[in-house]
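Re: How this chain folds, sequence and tokenised backbone to follow
Notation: Tokens come from a learned vocabulary of local backbone shapes, not from coordinates.
Start of record: The labelled sequence and token lines come straight after this line.
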Amino acid sequence: AGNEKEEGETADTVGCCSLRVEHINLHDNDEGQQCVVEFDFLGKDSIRYYNKVPVEKQVFKNLKLFLENKDPTDDLFDRLNTSDLNKHLQELMEGLTAKVFRTYNASITLQEQLSELTDPAESIAEKILSYNRANRAVAILCNHQRTPPKTFEKSMKSIQSKIETKKEQLGVAKKDLKNAKVDYKVKKDERSKQVVEKKKKLLQRLEEQLMKLEVQATDKEENKQIALGTSKLNYLDPRITVAWCKKWHVPIEKVYNKTQREKFAWAIDMTDENFEF
């Protein structure tokens, strides 16, 4: 909401209450839309927020009044701070604060995305990819961007190398299985039958390992500029995640690490698979 900064933070970051005149532009008409507000500022964690939002005529009119006779560095809402805003919200509903809006929007988005993306027939690895994609939609909504890690390219090359090696192993395994089947047709004995079964299991195991590596590569690529941790820890109702894990038999440790499981122990204990936000 603005006005508060993390201890030691010196970057020129703002929130809704601390926006300055220089952070918005008003457009009577923009690409066929009327009353458009153009935002451009550094938000939480020094992440740039840029967006164009059509608003109601009265809101647009009020913003014009707030801009009058002000310099670019003047506060847009010079009579408002977070305490005043939250006090007003508390009068409308007990417990309501500015942060609740983001928490609600983040949580309802996760719930809807999980319902849309989860396929019961998928493997555990594929379900986790679907979960991360749902969480990614939340991170984008909350503007949780990041610069790709310096080790990203090296890490991706390592995964691609593992994928190529696994494909080679898979090719060899397929040939070995084919030869084993031919051998069994000729000999028709128990030993050659066991060899066929052994080769089948090896092939299946290699296929599963390849699929996991490919899912990992896809997930890593899609996440390179999105920070999933912030929304997961601070803005999502953990009961949504716990219920999803229990419903689809995904181990909770695949989604929450040890520290996160301790933080959300209350949700893990109280939530069943039927919970919906």
In short: Strands lie at 24-30, 33-42, 48-54. The first strand starts at residue 24 and ends at 30. The chain has a mean pLDDT of 90. Residues 257 and 263 are 10 Å apart (CA to CA).
